[in-house]
Design brief:
Layout: E1 9-14, E2 17-22, H1 33-48, E3 54-59, E4 63-66, H2 70-76, H3 80-99, E5 104-108, E6 111-113, H4 114-122, E7 125-129, E8 133-134, H5 138-141, H6 149-157, H7 159-168, E9 172-173, H8 174-180, E10 185-187, H9 192-204, H10 208-218, H11 220-239, H12 245-255
Parallel strand pairs: 2-3, 3-5, 4-6, 5-7, 7-10
Antiparallel strand pairs: 1-2, 8-9
Helix pairs in contact: 1-3, 3-4, 3-11, 6-7, 6-11
Amino acid sequence: MDYRQYQHIVIEIRDGVALLTINRPEVMNATNAKLHNELSKIWLDMGQDPDVRVAVITGAGKAFSAGGDFELIENTIGNADLVAATMQEASDIVHNMINLDKPVISAINGVAVGAGLAVALLADISIAAEDARITDGHVRLGVAAGDHASVIWPLLCGMAKAKYYLLTCDFLDGKEAERIGLVSMAVPSDELMPKAMEVAEKLAAGSQSAIRWTKRSLNQWLRMAAHTSFDYSLALEMLGFFGDDIKEGLQSLKERRAPEFPSAR
């Protein structure tokens, strides 16, 4: 498999384990247009690569992924063509991860927001550093939480916690994420990658048919959620790119201040 097309994901494969590193550390691995596209396609390549039995994904430096790149968001606002393209890629990220039979492990090493958080939580096994900082962030930006939340959050941590964190955009650390069931486990930061690789190597040495068929069966729950709520929530998120709230949400993030949304005046 030729991975030279990937600019912002570093792929290293050894003994059946593919280590995927989101590699934009200078901007805390924020998702620009190229990276967003790569996150939608990498799962198809993982599925077709006979040398890969398990994938581990993490972020370079101190962040997993700090959400959407401001330039990408700004360019998308009010642009129907870019909204349609972003919507398709966001859909592909979710569906391609769900449909990949090979197990995926996320090693959440720091801040995880937006599309990066979608990848972190849709992984079959999510391991977070205890000091990782997690938030969905969509409502804080002024759009609906559409890119993955309706599929996975209620199944992981229950509707009450899902609504609280998705509506308030409060941050939670790795310890709290483990406590409420949002991630599989939390470990001290210096133990994160050793633990992720330990689990990956265990899965890579296991019965591949049994592991993949078990994942396929469990993911029927996610497929049901995707068919009933995901596309709907994603469309509502994209609708927000044509409103006024997202303009204020983006500007307030740039200025690091509380937003004053037009819809709340």
